[in-house]
Hints:
Layout: H1 2-23, H2 58-72, H3 76-88, H4 121-134, H5 141-154, E1 170-171, H6 176-182, H7 190-198, H8 204-211, E2 218-220, H9 221-229, H10 243-253, E3 265-267, H11 279-284, H12 292-296, H13 301-309, H14 313-327, E4 340-341
Antiparallel strand pairs: 1-4, 2-3
Amino acid sequence: MANKSLEIRFLFPLVLFLVVKLLCVDGKGFNNNGHKIRKGRWEGKLKMNFYHNSCPGAEDIVRQIVWKKVEANRSLAPKLLRVHYHDCFVRGCDASLLLDSVAGKAASEKEARPNLSLSGFEIIDEIKSILEKRCPNTVSCADILTLAARDAVSYEFERPLWNVFTGRVDGRVSLATEAARDLPSAGANFTTLQKLFAESDLDVVDLVALSGAHTIGIAHCGVFGRRLLNFTGKGDTDPSLNPSYASFLKSECSDKSLRLNPSAVVGMDPTGPLAFDSGYFVSLLKNKGLFTSDAALLTDPSAAHIASVFQNSGAFLAQFGRSMIKMSSIKVLTLGDQGGEIRKNCRLVN
Length: 350
């Protein structure tokens, strides 16, 4: 028995190393074994440096503005990333989330309950205003948002963490009802999450990797409070939650009367809400996932194994970049597609 335990101790690092090697991809889309990585449905529609001739320097302008903003306020990184996520899961990455509601018409995606806490729209507006003066009717709001999300996360690394393929145009339809229906919920179980991701051509590896975005940012206690104080309606705590972490969350989320304060906030990653690293997965494997949807990853053997691999920052960052490329290509509209345009103002259709 002792020998077997010793073998496992020595074999696990080797297995982890091999998995990390398989996950790592070079800039040409091949992994370290020379196998071509499957591309998403964006292939042939988007491309690198789309604005090289039509608006030279557009991507540099986006990066410079975003990095300056994030330098002044690090909390903007998770905010812009979240806006991008919420945009892509509803009608695809078409900047429909950026549209304001119009009097007399159905409420826009911004008005959906999951989107009421979103912020950072003014950064996109500022970038769009500058690019419109430089290159009128050229750079889409959808591409600006996709680039801004990448650059916001990349700021702390002082280099782009993944490539952004551009050439999107903006959608003309934005409905709150669709956002309420299509956005993954913080209270979702694994089956529901897997179904929603599969509908967007994202697999279980993407699901786990993209969940790792919870390594930065904060959450309001009202979103997960039921896990702490009333999990089954009997004033109990979710038994899957690490007891010491549950106690910490209760202290942060309760008022003086020991009742839930839904407006209180905590970091989504207990190892720290600002550093984009594998801390989320380290915490998750200790049953310190903040949301029910985080804990749900451990209920599926494949997802749990992938999460254990992503405790290695190199493996996580490599796959997160690839999964972001796939996510940012969901149902993209490009020039010539029906229902698309280059908006002059990201908040309004032309």
